[in-house]
Amino acid sequence: MLKSKTFVKKTRSGGVMKIVREHYLRDDIWCGSEACTECKHESTVLQKDACIESNLCSYPHYLVPDTNVVLHQIDILEDPVIRNVIILQTVLQEVRHRSAPIYKRLKDIIHEKEKHVYTFTNEHHKETFIEREPGESANDRNDRAIRVAAKWYSQHLKASEAEADGLKVVLLTNDQGNKQKAEESGLLVYKCEEYIKSLIANPELVDRLALSNDEKNEITSSKVLFPEHLPLSRIQAGIKSGTFLQGTLRASRDNYLEATVFVQREQDDGTEVLIQGLQNLNRAVHQDVVAVQLLPRNQWVAPSSVVLQDEGPAKDDGVEDEDEENVLKTSAAESARKLTGKVVGIIKRNWRPFCGMLNVSHIKESTRHLFTPADRRIPRIRIETRQASSLVGQRIMVAIDGWPKDSRYPNGHFVRSLGGAGEKDTEQEVLLLEHDVPHQAFSQAVLSFLPKMPWSITPEDMVKREDLRSLTVCSVDPPGCTDIDDALHCRELENGNLEVGVHIADVSHFIRSGNALDKEAANRGTTVYLCGKRIDMVPELLSSNLCSLRSNVDRLAFSCIWEMNHKAEILKTRFTKSVINSKASLTYAEAQMRIDDTNNNDDITVSLRGLNKLAKILKRQRIAKGALTLSSLEVRFHMDSETHDPIDLQTKELMETNSMVEEFMLLANISVAQKIHDEFPECALLRKHPAPPPSNYDILLKAAKSKDVEIHTDSAKALADSLDVAKVDGFPYFNTLLRILATRCMMQAVYFCSGMDSDFHHYGLASPIYTHFTSPIRRYADIIVHRLLAVAIGADSTYADLTDKHKQSALCNNLNYRHKMSQYAQRASVAFHTQLFFKSRGVLNEEGFVLFVRKNAIIVLIPKFGLEGTVFFDSKDKAAPNIAFDEEGPTLKVEHHTFHIFDKVKVTISLDDSNIQHQKIRMALTEPVIAGVSVAIPDAEPQAKKPKLDR
Amino acid sequence: MAGLELLSDQGYRLDGRKATELRKVQARMGVFAQADGSAYLEQGNTKALAVVYGPHEMRGSRSRTLHDRAVINCQYSMATFSTAERKRRPHGDRKSTEMSLHLKQTFEAAVMTQLYPRSQIDIYVKILQSDGGNYSVCVNAATLAVIDAGIPMRDYVCACTVGFVDETPLADLCFAEESGGVSSLALALLPRGGQIALLQMDARLHQDHLETLIEAAMTACKGVSKVLDEVVRQHLQERSVLSGE
Ligand SMILES: [Zn+2]
């Protein structure tokens, strides 16, 4: 049991404490090579014929990268060409310490079998452990440890019979000093670049090389453009003393020279600091954690309402920017000025590979090109590639390597190509990647936890279930829905009361906690619905078959059953796992027709009528309590069944049956929320919707006031009531517009763990407590809620993480993030399909309403398409008209016409595909007619559509 | 940065041990001549000294006298210099009182006290250097001291601290592991019969894992008992050689 081990004391000083730790050295750590006969390992990782075609190393070899190579060239290491790599423990630990995302990627590589990557625990190996020498820095010691381990490997392979195969070890390092010392000790050592360039069979790898320090100098002028970043130690001291503030940078989508940093301060809940101008942004990129210093009060500025994009042909370093920066420096009213600051240092970079397109350099032979990310918040990136000509018109991914202070743009390298721009598949891939939606096919490990087909309900399944197959249950969903997660029933009881049941697919029966399937679903968090495509949270067998409550098959369900009187008052609530057999899968329209058809009196229809009657009462009660009915225009595309191109577009229409189903889902969610909170006060997963801060309503109040309508926002109820009575004669659409605006004022609803928060209120639903129970097929939160409820009623057993409030809180964070991202992805997908639609339609002339007024533009909503677009008044290709912006209105006076919110306008709509990466819907004014601004009603080519050359 | 990685993917712990491996145990019996029994034990960097007096007549208040068995009196203390941060440790602080009580309970289960009615056995344990698993090391040292004193026991009492990380039980935690957010459990075992003399746990652990963890602790305790047994035999051999001459 206890092997004889020599042990060395390892001293580590931190602060004033001296910590002594034991450090055992072992003689049972094996080399992991297939060729080795000395080691007594059971399985090997490294191959015998480790061949990569290289003109530097003609023999089979193993690669030993040092820490910096791993940190900077992880893209290269990920490439399938690179195999048989030895990752030393020293390297692994350093990487873990320095970059969490790269550490994760490195671990993924190690776990990939085809890569043959072996981790050698050199720090605990008897012969490769070294002690730090006096005067030696920690970095130098680690470099030496790496060399010692590489040396050990080469001797070890030589000693064993591996020599016959000519196996050698190649150390990769970019550090000149390290390389020299390695050479002195007789090691084979190359610079990473050198080695990659020697891989004759795979020249494309060279593009994936990250630019290293010494190369940066040649590509940029020596002109210093940015102030130096402060070292971390000074930043920390500054944050402690309060001179600096720490926060995450959020770049503005509309204006590349502006960003905000949300900082936590002791005296308040946190505040936003505005950063304006390239110098003040000081090379911080969206999502970086930065240290900010506030500017003196007289330099504070107001957020600019100018929409400003870094577009047009590639500019040379920072020459033309100045006039753009000047646009920002318009004097603002004292009151509008916000806390303004500048970035003094970067605490943590949050760079990821970005999707985008290449702007090929004007110089034909140049290998350096600018890359424009699809995300407008990310600056353009300079990359080096030899295959520029083949990358034109392609969507590619690029990673940032660094941003030297003398460069206008950050430097990066090419990662991979996604396909031709504008192609539907490529664009879909891009928007999934950009919104961080996990969308790979489910792995074998995940699929292995699916039930074996043919599946049937076993007697064991029935032990803790009620047999509800005899009930007249039916489901009501949108047309074409294949993942049916809810079904309903309603029947009259003998005592005259009504029994109403909501039956939800029992997904937690199939997805057991902790296995690969569960972990995958937890990571995905939600199913993402794009136009014409669904990215499932769980594999299709579950989502569209076993868990889908289709008609006329037995399905497992989790039922919430109420006894109600005819006034829809709940008398009794109970929850049970069950088996149901749905009698019909209806669409909203079909259900509506049954209810309306007075001749039809079959069981299903009677049940539906009962539900409908109760739902109306429930809705009335809910609204009386102050629930908000807000509005947002949702559009549906009619897709061509073969090409999947959108051929028509209509706004979703709501029927009574929509609200019937919704009402009971809300009720079930509220009932379940109460139950799980009663049972698990510390770890119930709930959903809340915070009341918006009063300032959010400013725009709504101003807009309403402009039409002499008063809106009260003191409470949800007051808001709902005043929205109900808000009407303007001769303007029937006014109320909808107001509701759309009100929706924009709202906060995001979020999941949270009840033990970590005290405010449970759901503002929009006016409910003191709420959760999600009714869609476990497409939301992971519901699965957790199912598990909690199952434990609460004794139908299933619990597990550790379920009742750990910190783990649950972390899960909530992921779910909230995934939900937000899926919404964005959905919007982006709608936008893309809208573009496809308008591409096929040519130029249209439509009526719309002004939704917002900006400094140099108005934002117009076209109700017919549910489409929002911006009409700019200052375009670069013609003289700007006279524009006056009044913030109080807000109104915008263009020449002699003044625009107010809600004004009715007519615009032409067309697709502007001049910038293939950001194809956009272009709107131009046709009515009111303003000389020099508005355009003619289209039959000729409208002026605004004149394509601008991008490259 | 995230805390320490307590168990690497390759299955090694911070100090290079595998999950089930104990630290190196070294011990000597009979280190003090004037005491009835004494022992010094090192388990990794945790070092403890145990001294036993008795059985002897009751001292102090006679009211504690038991008529059918001996009273066991335990006293636990930590040397001022035993941790990285040097601080004065007054006698009888809450932690040492609790520890003394646990030791007392452990040895009441192991020592055949009914052989010595109306008498008293004193066990004093001092931690000289602390690096995790203080309770366990004290128990192991005291066991040797009791044996050295020639007091009959049902079996060796062996103790070990185990923790639970990444679904894997870790045997014989060192200080870095104990403070690294591991749910730890201390268990004292009479290995031959498999009886548990004491089980102490004050961290949160899911019920499902408890059994695995106890299982691992018992295996570890059996490992400790083998080492202790060797120490005792070695000691006896030395003694008999000495007395034989
Ligand atoms: Zn070997």
UniProtKB/TrEMBL annotation, chain A:
Top-rank taxon: Eukaryota
Subcellular location: Cytoplasm; Nucleus, Nucleolus; Nucleus, Nucleoplasm
One record GO biological process: rRNA processing
Coiled coil, from the record: none
CC cofactor: Mn(2+); Mg(2+)
Pfam families for the chain: OB_Dis3, PIN_4, RNB, Rrp44_CSD1, Rrp44_S1
Keywords: Acetylation, Cytoplasm, Endonuclease, Exonuclease, Exosome, Hydrolase, Magnesium, Manganese, Nuclease, Nucleus, Phosphoprotein, RNA-binding, rRNA processing
Keyword RNA-binding attached: yes
Major location category of this protein: cytoplasm
Gene Ontology cellular component list: cytoplasmic exosome (RNase complex); nuclear exosome (RNase complex); nucleolus; nucleoplasm
Stored SMART domains: PINc, RNB
The keyword Chloroplast belongs to this UniProt entry's keyword annotation: no
Signal peptide extent: none
InterPro entries attached to this UniProt entry: Dis3_CSD2, NA-bd_OB-fold, PIN-like_dom_sf, PIN_dom, RNase_II/R, RNase_II/R_CS, RNR_Ribonuclease, Rrp44_CSD1
Gene3D superfamilies: 2.40.50.690, 2.40.50.700, 5'-nuclease (3.40.50.1010), Nucleic acid-binding proteins (2.40.50.140)
Occurrences of domain PIN (ranges): 61-180
Domain RNB: 465-795
Single GO MF annotation: 3'-5'-RNA exonuclease activity
Oligomer status and interactors: Component of the RNA exosome complex; within the complex interacts with EXOSC4, EXOSC7 and EXOSC9 of the exosome core complex (Exo-9). The catalytically inactive RNA exosome core complex (Exo-9) associates with the catalytic subunit EXOSC10/RRP6. Exo-9 may associate with DIS3 to form the nucleolar exosome complex, or DIS3L to form the cytoplasmic exosome complex. Exo-9 is formed by a hexameric base ring consisting of the heterodimers EXOSC4-EXOSC9, EXOSC5-EXOSC8 and EXOSC6-EXOSC7, and a cap ring consisting of EXOSC1, EXOSC2 and EXOSC3; DIS3 associates with the base ring of Exo-9.
Family classification: Belongs to the RNR ribonuclease family.
PANTHER family, sorted: EXOSOME COMPLEX EXONUCLEASE RRP44 (PTHR23355:SF35), RIBONUCLEASE (PTHR23355)
Name of the protein in its database record: Exosome complex exonuclease RRP44
GN (gene name): dis3
UniProtKB/TrEMBL annotation, chain B:
Gene Ontology biological process terms from the UniProt entry: nuclear mRNA surveillance; poly(A)-dependent snoRNA 3'-end processing; rRNA catabolic process; rRNA processing; U4 snRNA 3'-end processing
UniProt-listed CDD domains: RNase_PH_RRP41
Subunit-level organization: Component of the RNA exosome core complex (Exo-9), composed of EXOSC1, EXOSC2, EXOSC3, EXOSC4, EXOSC5, EXOSC6, EXOSC7, EXOSC8 and EXOSC9; within the complex interacts with EXOSC2, EXOSC7 and EXOSC9. The catalytically inactive RNA exosome core complex (Exo-9) associates with the catalytic subunit EXOSC10/RRP6. Exo-9 may associate with DIS3 to form the nucleolar exosome complex, or DIS3L to form the cytoplasmic exosome complex.
GO MF terms held by the record: RNA binding
Keywords from the named record: Acetylation, Cytoplasm, Exosome, Nucleus, RNA-binding, rRNA processing
GO cellular component entries: cytoplasmic exosome (RNase complex); nuclear exosome (RNase complex); nucleolus; nucleoplasm
Keyword Translocase listed: no
Entry similarity comment: Belongs to the RNase PH family.
The protein's name in its UniProt record: Exosome complex component RRP41
Subcellular localization: Cytoplasm; Nucleus, Nucleolus; Nucleus, Nucleoplasm
Main location per the UniProt record: cytoplasm
Top-level taxon in the UniProt lineage: Eukaryota
Coiled-coil blocks: none
Organism, scientific name: Parambassis ranga (Indian glassy fish)
